[in-house]
Amino acid sequence: MVYNRLAFGNAYRYTCLYHKFLIVQCRNFANCIKRPDVKLVDGKLVGVHFEDMFANKSTAHNGARFVPHPFNRRFAYSKRPLFPIEPRNLRILGLKHKKRRGRGHKSSARGVRFSRRKKVGSVPRSRTFEGGTTPLYKRLAKWPDAWLSRQRKRLDPLNLSKLRYFIETGRLDTRFPITQRHLFDSKCVRVKRGVQLFNVNDYPFPYKIDIEVAGSDQSSIDVIKRVGGTVTIVYMDRINLRAHLKPYKFEILPKMSRPSLPMVHYLEKMKSRGCLVRYIKPLWLIEEEAEIAAEVAESKGPTDEPVKADIVEDIDDMVQEYRMKERTKKLII
């Protein structure tokens, strides 16, 4: 039989190397022909069958255990249980039967017999499947609060114990105000929408710090203020926060944006909890504060008339200055 070297590739090469190894080993041993399991036929070493080795009475088997040796491939063994790779024991992948799996409708070339037909319903369907009709969870209207709660942007939490750990390891300096950029650069928290402090079970915090964040709970505010520190809530929108964290990405830093009505309510609520709040007041808030101040001054009576006039004049000046800035901004644009 003639084997095609290209067809069998490495198997043919390994077989040739194995034969070469046997011949070299046998040439190195002078007494290899004297062994009963190897004989020389036409100048080639040939292995002797186990039964033929002990056919003569002179070489009868004494009942001892047969010890194989590497010169006979039929009884050779190695640490790896792998038979010799030869062309005769390689699989022909072209003769392998390929399974024809069913796709789509009809029988997929399997006939109509029950023994060979596709198994319908073997895979369990979903619990919400109702036989092809629209399931119940799709027929009912969506509850808006559930969707809105998932869409609500939440701040990045920072545990006060983690902040204490970063201070004790020297990664944050308490001598200077700690801003969100310091927390971001020290890898204390990954800032995306703003940092919110929280404390678990009133964990003690002995360091006096001045920290600027986007939100905080009451426990963190009380613990920091107890040792003489301050918590400042700074309002920043997405662009302002990005410019605060990575100012090197901006040629001109953007102006601080004004908060919306719900955000103003939140900031004032944080102010009532004991925080310092820093944000740019919108025009409508300035006007409302002016009206309230005028009403308060009017309610005090005629004795406080000069005080009332001074307050109103100061507030009017602030409103006029703000309106002039807005007009000049529009002209520049």
TrEMBL record:
Keyword Ribosomal protein attached: yes
Gene Ontology terms describing biological process: translation
One GO CC term on file: mitochondrial large ribosomal subunit
A GO molecular function held by the record: structural constituent of ribosome
Region of interest called Disordered, as start-end residue ranges on this chain: 98-117
InterPro entries per UniProt: Ribosomal_uL15/eL18, Ribosomal_uL15/eL18_sf, Ribosomal_uL15_bac-type
Keyword Ribonucleoprotein: yes
Occurrences of domain Large ribosomal subunit protein uL15/eL18 (ranges): 157-232
Sorted UniProt keywords: Ribonucleoprotein, Ribosomal protein
A matching Pfam family: Ribosomal_L27A
Source organism superkingdom: Eukaryota
Family: Belongs to the universal ribosomal protein uL15 family.
Protein name, entry field: 54S ribosomal protein L10 mitochondrial
Organism: Babesia microti (strain RI)
